[in-house]
Amino acid sequence: MKLSRRVEEIKPSPTLSLDAKAKELISRGEDIISFGAGEPDFPTPSSASEGGKKAIDLGKTKYTAVDGIPELKRSAIKRFYDFFGVKYEIGEVIVTPGAKMAIYEALFSLVDEGDEVIALSPYWVSYIDMIKMVGGKPKIVETKPENNFEPIPDDIAKSISEKTKLIILNFPCNPTGSVASPETFKEIAQAIKDKDIFVISDEIYGTMVYDGVFESFARFLKDRTVVIWGMSKTYSMTGWRIGFAFGPEKIISAMKKVQSQTTSNPTTISQYASLSALEEEPQKFVRETTEEFRKRRDLIYALLVEMGLKVVKPKGAFYIFPDVSRFLGMKVKNTDELSDFLLNKKKVLVIPGSGFGAEGFIRLSFALSESKIIEGIKRIKEGLDEINQS
Ligand SMILES: Cc1ncc(COP(=O)(O)O)c(C=O)c1O
């Protein structure tokens, strides 16, 4: 059977499949500690769950407008303004089935066959495959640990060619936890402002910042930026599948057209649940969970430093990205093998850097309790010690 060239070119998300593997082992009763989770471990706020249940009881269970119910769009605009200080009109936002779909729709709406799309490495696993899915050509610009994984605007400027259509930015970053400074964003905006280049700024972790400040890229180049945001991480609602895109009306309308011919509206019940979470005053859930993540970030960073690993202290999101290159080459050849070894021998899941375009590193999510972090790091240390001794 011959499948399409496009589907043959892409691979399944490695983070989702590894996390599913760990979840399956845990459900079989195995004592696995997973640093794989791409989702907060807090329960969805009760306001959201109540909103969802009420929607079912009131029979709000039919199709909605393709781009989402207007109340939710207005509420998302208000919250985005409260958090990031950028104001949008109702025609400049679309509600999507998860932030992932928002990214795909934005790429589909902007990229033509052969267009170049700049992405920064280490990158979130899905960008490269999504760029390929719409016929684009990924062009990678590396960010480095010695610069805290912050991009150098000049490196981006140098990689721009006649064919560059778009740049994807993701700060706070999955997998490094890096947060680009407002000055860096300003310089990137400056470098492209006279060119016909767009930006997708994936700000899904925008509220989870522990050091310094994060400003939306839209503050610097609003008329050419599509900002991605959503309920999954900030409100611990990954399974409800609600994302948002904010941007110029022309692009948002194009995305609506794509959505109308693919998924139709995002799930009605989830939209009402999201509305309840966004409307709740004050946003206690967001403040409290961010504080909890800050404590865990401090803990995991201290433990990794104590182990002697080279690691950049993440400023945001809930990931840390230590360098394990000195353990590779003998007993385990690469981070895929290291991840297999740690899961099978030490019952601890870490995500190999290969999927993020950064072999030699591993991604640890700190969306797990402090006691599990301590136990999990102990297991990693035992595993690495064993590799060192062999
Ligand atoms: C950087 C980044 N963007 C987008 C997403 C997707 O979010 P959603 O679950 O809302 O589709 C994720 C999820 O892991 C992510 O890490």
Provide a brief overview of the structure.
43% of the residues lie in helices and 13% in strands. The chain has 390 residues and is of the alpha/beta class.
Task: Explain this structure.
With 390 residues, this protein is an alpha/beta fold. The chain folds into two domains: 5-43 and 284-389, Aspartate Aminotransferase, domain 1, CATH 3.90.1150.10; 46-279, Aspartate Aminotransferase, domain 2. The chain has helices at 5-9, 14-27, 46-57, 70-84, 99-110, 126-133, 153-159, 182-192, 218-221, 249-260, 268-279, 284-306, 335-346, 370-389; strands spanning 33-34, 93-96, 116-121, 137-142, 164-169, 198-202, 225-230, 243-246, 319-320, 348-349, 351-352, 362-365. It has a seven-stranded mixed beta sheet, with helices on both faces. The termini are far apart. The mean pLDDT is 96. Residues 38, 98-100, 124, 170, 174, 202, 204, 230, 232, 238, 243 line the site of pyridoxal-5'-phosphate.
Q: What structural category characterises the helix and strand content?
A: alpha/beta
Provide mean pLDDT, rounded. Answer: 96
Cofactors, ions and other ligands in the entry: pyridoxal-5'-phosphate
- What share of the residues lie within helices? 40-55%
Overall spatial form: globular
Order of helices and strands: HHEHHEHEHEHEHEHEEHHHEHEEEH
Q: Can you summarize the main beta sheet?
A: 7 strands, mixed
Overall number of strands? 12
CATH fold node name of the largest domain: Aspartate Aminotransferase, domain 2
Would you identify the CATH architecture of the largest domain?
A: 3-Layer(aba) Sandwich
Name the poorly predicted regions.
none
Rg for CA atoms: 21 Å
CATH superfamily of the largest domain, please? Type I PLP-dependent aspartate aminotransferase-like (Major domain)
Strand order of the largest sheet: 2-8-7-6-5-3-4
How many distinct folded domains? 2
> What is the number of helices?
14
Distance, first to last CA: 45 Å
Percentage of β-strand residues: 5-15%
